[in-house]
UniProtKB/TrEMBL annotation, chain A:
<dbReference type="InterPro" id="IPR000510">
    <property type="entry name" value="Nase/OxRdtase_comp1"/>
</dbReference>
<keyword id="KW-0500">Molybdenum</keyword>
<keyword id="KW-0560">Oxidoreductase</keyword>
<dbReference type="InterPro" id="IPR000318">
    <property type="entry name" value="Nase_comp1_CS"/>
</dbReference>
<dbReference type="GO" id="GO:0016163">
    <property type="term" value="F:nitrogenase activity"/>
</dbReference>
<protein>
    <recommendedName>
        <fullName>Nitrogenase protein alpha chain</fullName>
        <ecNumber>1.18.6.1</ecNumber>
    </recommendedName>
</protein>
<comment type="subunit">
    <text>Tetramer of two alpha and two beta chains. Forms complex with the iron protein (nitrogenase component 2).</text>
</comment>
<dbReference type="Pfam" id="PF00148">
    <property type="entry name" value="Oxidored_nitro"/>
</dbReference>
<keyword id="KW-0411">Iron-sulfur</keyword>
TrEMBL record, chain B:
<dbReference type="GO" id="GO:0016612">
    <property type="term" value="C:molybdenum-iron nitrogenase complex"/>
</dbReference>
<dbReference type="InterPro" id="IPR000510">
    <property type="entry name" value="Nase/OxRdtase_comp1"/>
</dbReference>
<keyword id="KW-0479">Metal-binding</keyword>
<dbReference type="Pfam" id="PF11844">
    <property type="entry name" value="DUF3364"/>
</dbReference>
<comment type="function">
    <text>This molybdenum-iron protein is part of the nitrogenase complex that catalyzes the key enzymatic reactions in nitrogen fixation.</text>
</comment>
<dbReference type="GO" id="GO:0051536">
    <property type="term" value="F:iron-sulfur cluster binding"/>
</dbReference>
<dbReference type="InterPro" id="IPR050152">
    <property type="entry name" value="ChlB/BchB/BchZ"/>
</dbReference>
<keyword id="KW-0408">Iron</keyword>
<keyword id="KW-0411">Iron-sulfur</keyword>
Amino acid sequence: MSLATTQSIAEIKARNKELIQEVLRVYPEKTAKRRAKHLNVHEAGKSDCGVKSNLKSIPGVMTIRGCAYAGSKGVVWGPIKDMIHISHGPVGCGQYSWGSRRNYYVGTTGIDSFVTLQFTSDFQEKDIVFGGDKKLVKIIDEIQELFPLNNGITIQSECPIGLIGDDIEAVSRAKSKEYGGKTIVPVRCEGFRGVSQSLGHHIANDAVRDWVFDKVTPESKPTFEPTPYDVAIIGDYNIGGDAWSSRILLEEMGLRVIAQWSGDGSLAELEATPKAKLNVLHCYRSMNYISRHMEEKFGIPWCEYNFFGPSKIVESLRKIAGYFDDKIKEGAERVIAKYQPLVDAVIAKYRPRLEGKSVMLFVGGLRPRHVIGAYEDLGMEVVGTGYEFGHNDDYQRTAQHYVKDGTLIYDDVTGYEFERFVEKIQPDLVGSGIKEKYVFQKMGVPFRQMHSWDYSGPYHGYDGFAIFARDMDMAINSPIWKKTKAPWKEVPKPNLLAAE
Amino acid sequence: MAQSAEHVLDHFELFRGPEYQQMLANKKKMFENPRDPAEVERIREWAKTPEYREKNFAREALTVNPAKACQPLGAVFASVGFEATLPFVHGSQGCVAYYRSHLSRHFKEPSSCVSSSMTEDAAVFGGLNNMIDGLANSYNMYKPKMIAVSTTCMAEVIGDDLNAFIKTSKEKGSVPADFDVPFAHTPAFVGSHVTGYDNALKGILEHFWDGKAGTAAKLERAPNNKINLIGGFDGYTVGNIREIKRIFELMGIHYTILADNSDVFDTPTDGEFRMYDGGTTLEDAANAVHAKATISMQQWCTEKTLPFIADHGQEVVAFNYPVGVSATDEFLMALSRISGKDIPEELARERGRLVDAMADSSAHVHGKKFAIYGDPDLCYGLAAFLLELGAEPIHVLSTNGNKAWEEKMQALFGSSPFGQNCHAYPGRDLWHMRSLLFTEPVDFLIGNTYGKYLERDTGTPLIRIGFPIFDRHHHHRSPVWGYQGGMNVLVKILDKIFDEIDKKTNIAGKTDYSFDIIR
C-alpha cells in the first residue's frame, strides 16, 4: 500500500509542494522558472488545475511529447482504412509509426485496406535540393496502378516539406482532377509545427473539413436511408478494438452508428457524418475541432462521453440518451441493466485485490482524466496525473469532474520529474507510455502502457472494463514485484520499520 | 454477451463472437461503401501474378514497407554505447520520441535520449538557442559524462552548423569548456540507420582522437597490442557483444569494444533505474587510437569510420555479420593473426559442436529455399550460413543495400553450388519481396517483425532474425555470432522447419502418417 493512504490531505499537499520545489532545483534558473508553471498541487474547488499547458517543450529536458506528424498521420488520419496515407519525406517517420498504434480494422490489407502498410516517398538528397513535387506526382500514379482499390490518398507532410517550399496542395488538386475527382488530401503536419502532437490533430481536422467535407455537396444523399437515431463516434481510434466495444453499446440502446472517427473508419463514413443527428465525442482533445465545425456548419450537436469504467459508462449512456426520445432512454436503461451483472462480477472479483491502491498517470489525449473513474470503480485512487499535450480546457475538465484535492499535476512532464515524483510518492501503479514503461519497471513499480493498452484492450465499454480490471490486477499483483531485490540484499523499508 | 469476469476474453477472442461479427458485417455493408467482394478477390489474385510483379518492380518513386530506418536512430544506438553518454538529437522533438519508442519496443528496455525541440521559430532563425538551452538543461538534469549530438532532417534542411553551435554553447556556459560534446550530421534523407551509426561513431572517435574540435591537442598514436571491435547496428548487440567479449577473454586478447551498448540495453530489474550502464569508457574511446587494429563486424555500418581509423595508422578489418562456421573461422583467425594469440582448444571444441549439430540436422535444411531481408551485412552473414547448410538463399533483399553490396552478394552466390539460383535485390522494399514470394515461392522467410505481414499474405513461414523484433521477446539476449551464436541460429531455423512439418501433418483422421515423433 502506498504512503498516500496513510496521510492526511494537508500532509499530501505539503509533500507534493515540496516535491515540486525539489525537482525544480535541478534546473538552470531560466528553465526552473518555465517548468514551475507546469507543475502544481490541485486545490479542490478550483476551475482548472493551475498549470500552464500547450506551450513549447524546453530543449534537452527529455519531453515525452511527439510532433504534429504523429498527431495527424499517427492519430487522426492513419486509421482511415480504405485510404492510402503517404508519409511524405524521409523514411524514418513512417517507419517508426508503422503499425505501432494498434488501430484495429477489418479489411483485406494491401488490397482494399491499408492501415498496416508503410507508404513513404523515402526522400533522398536530390528531393530536398530539387523539391519533391514531381516525385509525389509519380507516387500517386504508382499507387493508382498498384493499389487500384484505394478510395483516397492523404499526403502526410514530414518536416522537410514545409522547409523546401513544396506545393503539395497544387499536386493534390491536379491529381484529383486527373483521377476523376478522387479524394486526395494534402496535410501540412510537418513535425516542427506547433509544440506537440496537438497541432497535428487540429491540422488533420481542418484537412477533413477542407478536402473531404467541402467536396461533399450539402444536398448529396447518403448511401443509406437516414433515421432519427443516427450518430457518429468521434475521437475513438479503436485501439485494441475500443470503438467496437463502444459501438455495440450505442447500437444496443437503439442508436445507429453511421461513422467511426477514425478507428476502423472509411472515407464513406467521414463523408456521411454531416448527416448524423448527434456526434458523440470521446477524445475531445484530438477531435473537438471537427465537432465544433459540424455544429456550426451543419447544426449537429456534439456530446462528450466517457466509456472507461461502469460509473462513467452509465453516466454517459444516460447523457447521450438525453438527446433522444424515450425509446432511446429506455434503451440506455436496458443496456445498463443488461451489463450490471458483468460489472458486479468484475468488481466482486477484482476490487478486493485493488482496493486502496494508488496510481500515477501521464498520458495523452483524454486519458489523463477519462480513466480516473475506471480506477475508482475498482477502489483505486489516482494521486498524480498530467497531459502530454493537453490544453487549458483539458485541465478545466480534469479539475471540475475528475481529480481529487491534493492530486499532483504535471504538464508535459520531463523524464527527470516523472522519475523523482514516482520515487517519492511510491504509487502502486504507473500508467504511461512505452518510453516510460521500462524505466518504472526497473524501479520495481508495476506499470501499464495507457496508450497501446500494453498490447491488450479494448478498455472501452463494459467488455473493455473486464479486461481493464484484469490487466490492472495482473500488473499490480504480479508475484514478480516481490522478487526485485535479491534476498541477501533485502533492506527493510524505513517507513515499515517506523510503524513497528 | 460473451465477456465474463470469470474468463476474461481478450481482443483476439472477444471480437470473434457472433455479436461483434454481426455488428462488423452490418457496419461494412451499410456504411463503408465497400468494394464488390469479387473485385477485391480479383485484385488480390492479380497482385500475386508475374504481371503485377513487373509493374511492382517498375516503381520509381513510391516505397512500400521499406526495411530500413533513418540515420539518427543509428546515431542514438551508437551513442548510448559510451559510458554515461546522453544522445542529444538537434531538430524536431517528435523524432526523438520515435527513436526511443522504437528501441524500447525491440529491447524491452528504457531508451534515454533528448531533443533540442526545435519549432517554427527555430526553422526561421536556426536552432542555436535550442542548442544552448538544451545542452545546459541536459547537463544539469541528467549528469552525463558526455553528450553526443546528432541531427534530424529539419536541422539539416535549414543547415544548422553543429560545430559552431556547440562552440557557442560552451562559450555561453551551457556545459564546461572541457566537457565532451562530439557531434555528427545525420540527415535522414541520406542513407539509413546504418549510415547514422557510422557517422556518429566516427564523430565520437574524431572528437577524442583529433583534438576535440580544435580545443585540445590531437592524440599521438603510440601503438599497443589492443584490438578494437565495432559491432555495428545490431538488434542482437546484447548477446553478440557479450559473446565477443567471452571470445576475446578466452583468447587472452586485450580489447576495446567501441560503442558497447550491451549493458545499457540489458539492465536488471532490481529496484534501480539505470539511465546509463556500462559502455565504452571515454578513456578507452580515446586510447583506442593506440590499438593495433580495429575489427568491424559490419562493413556497411563502418564505411566512413574504418577509413578514418586506417588513416590513423591502424590495420582495419571488416566482416559482414559473421554467422556460422566459416565466417566465425575467419573472424577467429583474423583475431589470432593480429594478436599473435592461438585459438584456444575450447573454441575449437565449440566449432566442432556446431559442425556436429549441422551434420546431425543438415538433412532437414539441405535444399530448402529461403528468402532473407534486412540490413546489408546481416543479409550477407545469414546467406553465407545458409549456403554452408546446403540451403538456398533464393531472394536476398536489402532496402539499404547498394550496388557494391549487390556485387558482393552475387560473388558469394557464385562461390557456392547452392547459390546458383540466388539473387540480391538492393534498394528494394517488402512490397517487392511480396511479389518475389508469390512468383518465385520459397520454403522460409527470414526477417524482422514486419515479415509477419508477408507470412500472412504469402503463406511463407517467417523465421524472425533482424531488427526490429517487436512481437517476440528476448531473442536479442542470445548471440548469433561465434560458434555458439551459429548454434542459436541453426536451432531457430530448425524449430521453424519442424513446426511447419507438424502443422502440415496434424489433422487427425487425415494426415496421421508423417506426424512423426522422431526426426
